[in-house]
Design brief:
Elements (H helix, E strand, L loop, with lengths): L1 E3 L5 E3 L2 E2 L4 H11 L5 E2 L22 E5 L8 E2 L9 E2 L1 H16 L7 E5 L2 H14 L6 E4 H4 L4 E7 L15 H8 L2 E9 L1 H4 L3 H13 L1
Parallel strand pairs: 3-4, 5-11, 8-9, 8-10, 10-11
Antiparallel strand pairs: 1-2, 6-7
Helix pairs in contact: 2-3
Length: about 210
């Protein structure tokens, strides 16, 4: 990030104190020319610092790829207003991941769920409320989480369609914000066949596949 200094020039803050180094590195490479550095106090931070470490998770990165699962997006009935997208399949996966984390002793307050689409935020909140797990778990859009952080962030990308259309999901700033809200674990849920048609998002999926 760049901030104006007293002499009028912009200064980039290259050392970050929020997230595990693996969570940081994709953002650093794609947007900051590999200049970001993780402070030693957070570079190797994992869920083990919170107590139990889920045995299925051995990395701060987890990609749940829905390619080929036919979990297609849907469009909310907005009565002529700008249409937002949602995805029932990804909503179910969010609930599954949340329940696995809670089973392993992770507290609700440490979990945040982000989606670029307000309709998906609504669906996830409904599903977690029905499952009895909404209390303490924050679910919001990318913009709603800007400036915030959680030990664990689950991202629902939503877009999955035969034409590989991703809409404003291609907004690089928003996806960067979503990923970098996570401190110790970032879970990405999405259809690599659809979002992977975008070069920037393909780099994100590939990075999670190689390092998660």
């Amino acid at each position: 990030m760049a901030f104006p200094s007293v002499d009028g020039f912009a200064t980039m803050l290259v050392e970050q104190y929020r997230m595990n180094e693996l969570i940081m590195q994709w953002s650093s490479h794609e947007l900051y020319h590999d200049r970001l550095v993780a402070h030693g106090s957070v570079a190797s931070a994992t869920l083990g610092d919170l107590g139990k470490f889920p045995p299925e998770i051995t990395s701060p990165l987890l990609f749940v790829d829905t390619a080929g699962a036919l979990m297609y997006e849907e469009v909310e009935d907005s009565k002529g207003i700008t249409e937002s997208k949602f995805n029932y399949g990804e909503t179910d996966l969010v609930v599954q991941v949340v329940n696995e984390l809670l089973t392993e002793g992770i507290s609700c307050e440490h979990i945040g769920v982000i989606s670029p689409y307000s309709a998906q935020v609504t669906e996830i909140r409904k599903a977690l409320r029905k499952d009895g797990q909404l209390r303490g778990i924050e679910v919001s859009t990318v913009d709603g989480f800007q400036g915030r952080e959680k030990e664990i962030i689950i991202i629902s990308m939503v877009r999955s369609n035969p034409t590989n259309t991703i809409g404003f999901l291609s907004n690089e700033r928003r996806m960067n914000v979503a990923v970098t809200r996570a401190k110790k674990l970032c879970v990405l849920i999405g259809d690599s066949a659809t979002v992977g048609k975008n070069t920037f998002l393909k780099s994100l999926c590939d990075y999670f596949m190689c390092n998660g």
